[in-house]
# Entry
Amino acid sequence: MKKFILDTSLFVNPAARTAFGKTPQASVDGFVKKVKKADAEFYMPPSIFKELSYFAEDLSRLETIVKKRAPNIYSIYLPAAVFHEIIDDVRRRMNKGLRLAEEFARDNRPDNDEKLRKLREKYREAVRTGIVDSQEDFEIILLAYQLEATIITLDEGIIRLANRIGVQYLEANKFPALLKTL
# Structure
């Protein structure tokens, strides 16, 4: 039986959820309807389930289909090379963020609100895009690694780290097509 680890992006990201519903709550409900008879197991770390609860009010039906399971973080071993790369990547991102902040500080134009908006946008892109930037995201990867499951996500950081450690993933917007075959 195929195992899937679900990320919140499946239900929250407009590019992914449209096959299930227009809103996060509608996508949760639509997902439940479409996977009831699927020959598959669905998992979410409890932290991801909690994160999803901020976007959708009623997850009671989802709880009957998706198994909440935390990864056993004390028994999973990853190659040191992965962390070596992550540390190098974080350092490069921090330096890029610092350069952006310096650029902002040097800009003497008076429109601070607009400057702050642009700084936030550029900083987020420089520092957070394409990297696992939360424990929740890391738990998704670890659980998939532990269960030898496929991650369903659109998160670039999760995809990137999954590739580094050999965890299978599928972009969330392609998942509805796969569901038809299960």
Q: What stands out?
A: The mean pLDDT is 88. The first helix runs from residue 9 to 12. The chain has two domains: 2-76+134-179, 84-127.
